[in-house]
Amino acid sequence: MQVFIVMGVSGVGKTTIGKLLAKKINVPFYDADDFHPSENLKKMKEGIPLQDSDRESWLQTLANKISEWQKKDGAVLACSALKEKYREQLQSVPKEEITWIFLHSEYETIFNRMSSREDHYFKPELLKSQFETLEMPNYGFHINVNASKEEVLDEIMWKLNRKEDAHMGLVGLGVMGKSLALNFASKGIDITVFNRHVEELEVDIAKKFAEENKLVYEFPWFDNLEKFVESLERPRNIILMVNAGPAVDMVIESLLPFLDKDDLIIDGGNSHYKETIRREGLLKEKGIFFMGAGISGGEEGALKGPSIMPGGPKKAYDRAGKILERIAAKDKDGNPCCTHVGPDGAGHFVKMLHNGIEYGEMQLIAETYHYLRFGTNASPEEIAALFEEWNKEMKSFLLEISVEILRKKENDGFLIDQILDAAKQKGTGGWSTNAALELGVPLDTITAAVLARNISGKKQERVNAMKAYNREYKSTTDLKEISADLFKAYKAGSVINHAIGFDLLLEASKAYDWNLNLSEIARIWTNGCIIRSHFMEDLIEIFKERPSENILMHPDIISLISNSESALMGIIAKALPAGYPLPVLSSAANYLLSFTSGQSSANMIQAQRDFFGAHTYERTDKPRGEFFHTQWLDN
After folding, report:
1. Out of 14, 159, 187, 351, which one is annotated catalytic?
2. Would residue 285 show up in a list of annotated catalytic residues for this protein?
3. Is this structure's pTM higher than 0.90?
4. What is the pLDDT of residues 336-368, one digit of tens each?
5. Out of 155, 275, 358, 367, which one is annotated catalytic?
6. How far lies 575's CA from each of 365, 455, 462, in Å?
């Protein structure tokens, strides 16, 4: 039977985790400290470090016990086993009969834990000597205990039960690639890394990354692509963390000569969904699986748990999905914020639209801040306090970080006042607008947010125009006077922005036959990603009830918008005449009025089109689908 030895310095949680593991796998638990002779216990209570001569008989007793346990029911043993020679002495049974579980963390973390422990004979002052004595094993399971005890146990069980193909090769060690590699390793997934070596440009990137982290994780590293591919378990799983565009094709072309049938490439960047469809088709002809997986959460998300949106062949997800789910953030019920979104380009389309909604939400916060900052002359600290109060209800990640941004100081001033008002973008917002145009779907708020960034880039031109038109910022209202209505307007704008984004997902699902599950997409956006919020939690249930309907038609949303519409229109009516642009809020209001208008202005458009181009029109007194043309200049 197997004997599991949970090892590490004192205070790392050997006893706690060992007992949980023993209970989980239904074997006896033993604590090595219980086998110390009385003279050793006395020394430790007095703060005297044990010498190797003190440990000799103790280790031999444990070795004998391990042999007994292995012949019976197996066991879990909590034992420091800091030196390799100690572990060799404990190895009284064949190597394959002992599983070593090395628990570790930073010195400061463990010291703080030990300082808070009561009625334990080991003094925290001895911890430094234990760290100095520790010789980390290059075998067994290495588990970082900077997590809850349940999460630590879950990682151990994953490693015990995982399949042989729980292995990933990663290409591209930029910021996201490095964070993702550390995430894989921390979750017990074998990860091999590659980064190209280019003299004076990218020098020893993979080697340096492995060396920087060698005290915690062992990263096999390569800067030779052929050797990298050959090192991976078959069938191979390779995730690309390179810049979207030609770089993805270049890497794929470089990989192909070394790949075999059924190998899998996962594009983890922000590639355009049509490029993903093209690449999957080309690789399918060669017997290679290809998945486009949107990954949201930035550097911190990649490291601690992002929201992941994989699209591609279901067979490929069945193989690699468990690995991706392993590193993903968890929702409120502990389920991974990762799901098989749909076939071919569905994953990258969903990530693109996530970013589109993100554009709208960011601009909505920005223009609200701008109006408050100059229209009410509120300080960044006052606005931060207001946003913090709003976020007790909204629970929006973007609103949360905006509070921190507004409170950040530099010298005697607020940093926000020193940041140039010219926004950059990577393209996904514009891609969303283009996709909406192709599918014939309105995308008012997201498009307005994209265009707001475009005009912000014309900084000097805007400054010149401000002088030419004699514009100047004036405080026209009071923060307290408008805060309640502004919050209602902000909430309504955010809901409408989400409705517009999800409506595009719905139409794309129909057009491309993706069968997107909007409730499931909302679920994986509840944690790890940039647009996570309390409202996203609500959308899970809304889409379960009405999976193929614009959310603005849900009774709860109708009630919310109806109660906020007056405030929405009122804020716009105050801000625009005073000279403060609200592009997303205004677009939200216009979309709402258009969406709820039984009679639009489009009859005039159709008449104009028929007048100059004989494009025909439908009539209100005839069935839909019948078209008519008029000779407009005939009497």
Report:
1. 351
2. no
3. no
4. 999 999 999 999 999 999 999 999 999 999 999
5. 358
6. 15, 19, 19
